[in-house]
Amino acid sequence: TYIIGAACVDVLDRSCIEECPVDCIYEGERMLYIQPDECVDCGACEPVCPVEAIYYEDDLPESEEKFRTAATQLFSEIGSPGGACAFGPLKRDAAVVASL
Ligand code: F3S
Ligand code: F3S
């Protein structure tokens, strides 16, 4: 999967959403989150983010590890909705992000 990191927080540029062929980038209150089971690793989102917030999981810097955890926690509660557009905004954040 790919993971969205700190640079997205309170920026939410949303350019990434337009690029994702499987619509697996979900909108929280303070940042966007990639559903790890729905992401097909196409990589289309990564270059379009103007603040370079998106990483392939193996390239995630140590300092951004909490955002891997954030996505895992959030989607362990929400599951795999199967499409962010139809599902709509999550209206919440992972605890680690909400408390930043
Ligand atoms: Fe965030 Fe970049 Fe997408 S700022 S919303 S990850 S384009
Ligand atoms: Fe979508 Fe980016 Fe994954 S475009 S499929 S979230 S690599």
UniProtKB/TrEMBL annotation:
Its cofactor is [3Fe-4S] cluster; [4Fe-4S] cluster. InterPro entries: 4Fe4S_Fe-S-bd, 4Fe4S_Fe_S_CS, 7Fe_ferredoxin, FdxA_Actino, RnfB_subfamily. Keywords: 3Fe-4S, 4Fe-4S, Electron transport, Iron, Iron-sulfur, Metal-binding, Repeat, Transport. One of its GO terms (molecular function) is metal ion binding. The keyword 4Fe-4S applies. PROSITE patterns: 4FE4S_FER_1, 4FE4S_FER_2. SUPFAM superfamilies: 4Fe-4S ferredoxins. Residues 30-59 form the 4Fe-4S ferredoxin-type domain. The keyword Iron-sulfur applies. Binds 1 [3Fe-4S] cluster. Ferredoxins are iron-sulfur proteins that transfer electrons in a wide variety of metabolic reactions. This is Ferredoxin.
